[in-house]
Amino acid sequence: MSERSEGKLGDVVLGVIGGGQLGRMLCLAARPLGVRTLVWTGGHEAPAAEVADVALDAGFEDAASLARFVEQATHATLEFENIPAATLEAVAAALPLHPSPRAVAICQRREAEKAFLRQHRIPCAEFALVTSAAELAEAMGQIAGPAVLKTAAFGYDGKGQQRLAGDEDPAAVWASFGADRAVIEAFVPFVRELSVMVVRSASGEMLTYDPAENEHERHILARSLVPARIPMATAERCRALAERVALALDYHGVLGVELFELADGQLLVNEMAPRPHNSGHHTLDACVTSQFEQQLRATCGLPLGSPRLLSPVVLSNLLGDLWSDDGEAPDWSSLFADPECRLHLYGKKEARRGRKMGHLNLLGESVETILPRLEALRARLARR
Questions:
Q1: pTM greater than 0.90 (yes/no)
Q2: How many helices and strands in the chain, by DSSP H and E?
Q3: Mean of pLDDT values over 139-149
């Protein structure tokens, strides 16, 4: 533990950069341990502020808030990656920050992320960086088939992406895309999307959770099935690949590694998330130690907890689509007809189509027996 905490857990003040739902769940994980939390919202809507001990409601460029943050926190982490590099560097210069600014910079920019994977010979889809219509034309010729054009920086839940069949006019595509830098990736005909949450402490201790099998709708995660319906040997290769990424990044904290499984069994890394990940929310109810408590442990220099799966589980995201046009929430009481359903709402004030407002974890004897129960619960919610 840092000298600033004087070796006592009760003296730790965990500074969280960002105030969204991940920060909220991190603050909730800190409370049973007696760890105080300080949330810096960045000036955005901040569900985490409702459960934090202290909230700084100001932009990340605000010098006074930076000074207060590094003065009051003993350790720091972040709950989303789109934070100015200068802010992260300033925090890291004053107190332990996990993950590091370098790791965040690589993961927050697709261009840097793909270059990192190529540099470390980590398998990923064929790609090229393009900065003009001419470069796009050349790259489309090399890929010679379906592809996905993505903004070079940021983007999540399918934002900043355009699917290409391969026969489009590059000049027209580039003119309409509206970015000066982009990454074009060959479309991967995967049979399954997987993810692994890996946690690594500052001392080098590293653990992985069981791989999740993820199903998306409209580019947004809809369900995560754990354990994934894959052979044990494939699961071990997923874990090994996630650990390889964490080691190459010299990563400390919780890292989400998204993977594609191809028909021939090959695994490709799709993206990395330098924080707890949506597909790891099942750990709140189905694992010995949640990914949020692990983030706290890794950040504050504590030994890591067991990631062992206690029960098969299916996570289902609850999007703003379930809310009525006038903002009325569904009647959640119907979910409690199933005694193994756990509901998590994020405290967001405005429901919008595609916005993640909460999730539920449904536990059971197997993924196969859980799925029809989930379908029945979701049908009840839809009948408003």
A1: yes
A2: 11, 17
A3: 92
